[in-house]
Amino acid sequence: MAISKTKLHPAWTAAGVTFLTLVATAGFRSTPSVLIVPLEDAFGWSRDQISLAVAVNVLLFGLTAPFAAALMERFGIRRVVMSALSVVGIGALGTVWMTKPWHLIALWGVIVGIGTGSMALVFAASVANRWFIKRKGLVIGALTAATATGQLIFLPGLSTLAMNHGWKTVSITVSISAFVMVPLIYIFLKEKPATAGVAPYGAPDDWTEPLQLQKNAGKLAIDTLVKATKHKDFWYLAGSFFVCGLSTSGLVGTHFIPAAHDHGMGEVTAASLLALIGVFDVVGTIFSGFLTDRIDPRKLLFFYYLLRGLSLFLLPQILFATVHPSTLVFIIFYGLDWVATVPPTIVLCRHVLGAERGTVVYGWVFAAHQIGGSIAAYGAALMHTKFGNYSLAFYISGGLCVITSYFVLQIGKKKQDVRA
Q: With 136 labelled, which of 60, 167, 171, 381 sits at a CA distance of 20 to 30 A?
């Protein structure tokens, strides 16, 4: 199964196609933050009504992940991803005809939430685990950075579309983008190394392909959860990722634009700043993947959560009315730390029940991430309704990040080496 050293290993093609798909998925996922203010203006819906749909989207984005990971193991990555993209396209297009808040919850919350959750970071983990032995941390970092790249590409453009041509053009754009990705996956993404006649990148000469799990996907996901909950490390990982989701996609990812708008910043400017976070996120996450291959992942998580918490304490004081140096310092700093937690978390998940169930374990840990995000997406809106601003939400999130920085050091304490 050797391949000529003069040729590009098919693993890099698989990683490239996955990156493009995750870029699109990130754009779909971040779209509701662009629509909050336009939907308020168009329908007169309250911010907490709209944010409830976002919260449902974020929650299902996570709860779908472990089952999607199991389905990928059972039926193949390509089938699951193509089906998920079709679901996103249908759900986004359906919002064009909505007239009630519950329509938004059903379409963008439930349908698009399930569709995007069936790809998300379990897709990245599945591809990295199948195709790479060496450079796994770096690849996971690069694929995780696709989330930021999606924000960078989609947010300013979608915000401009919403302001100049109405919010429906945003839904139509997302729908078309999802449907366009389906044939690209079918043509260019190989299912696994054996399909391309090679071994994974960096595999030793005696490498053998792991046996495919034959369990029912739902049973596999539940069985993995039951077994994982008996390990203390799983709870540390799930708890830390709960706080990660609460402080990123749930709070900043959902409410950064409306919070800036409350302080007089233009929506396109705010969307551009959120996208700029994505620029530095690409750098930070790829570098985090590089570090994960070389440094104890627990120590990386300690610094990520501690520094994120400190930055969130400063956010209400330095933003939002104008773009001044302290604003840009936050954007750069927070961007570098946004999803840098993902590569070391994925590596640590492989040590809970072993490498063969590492992706499914990560699916459940990611579900905790999105539960935290869902709570923050709706809870921050309720705090805004009650107090007129988001300050308390930022302070609570910052405090939880600082506390989490201690607990991640407890992961795998009895083990000599937790690196992959």
A: 60
Tell me the domain boundaries of the chain: 10-197+214-410
Query: Per-residue confidence at 416, pLDDT binned at 50, 70, 90?
Result: very low
In this prediction the pTM is 0.70
- Degrees, nearest 5: CA angle 392-393-397: 115
pLDDT at 336 over 80: no
pLDDT for residue 2 is more than 50: no
Report pLDDT digits (tens) over 79-91: 999 999 999 999 9
Strand partners, 201: 132
Euclidean distance between CA atoms 153 and 104, whole angstroms: 24
CA nearest neighbour of 368 among 231, 243, 273: 243
Question: Cα(234)–Cα(242) distance, rounded to whole angstroms?
Answer: 12
Is residue 88 within 8 A of residue 178, CB to CB? The reply is yes
Contacts of 251 (CB under 8 A, 6+ apart): 373, 376, 377, 380, 390, 393, 394, 397
Collapsed DSSP state (helix, strand, coil) of residue 340: coil
What residues contact 110, with CB distance under 8 A and at least 6 apart? 56, 57, 60, 91
Q: Return the amino acid letter for 153.
A: I
Q: Which among 246, 235, 277, 263 has a CA at the least distance from the CA of 365?
A: 235
Per-residue confidence (pLDDT) for residue 103, from 0 to 100: 92
- Mention the CATH class of domain 10-197+214-410: mainly alpha
Cα separation of the two ends of the chain: 24
Chain segment 27-54, per-residue pLDDT in tens: 787 787 778 888 888 888 888 888 888 8
The tokens 């998580």 sit on which residue?
301
Distance CA 55, CA 108 (A): 10
DSSP string, 366-378: HHHHHHHHHHHHH
Q: Give the per-residue pLDDT at 106.
A: 93
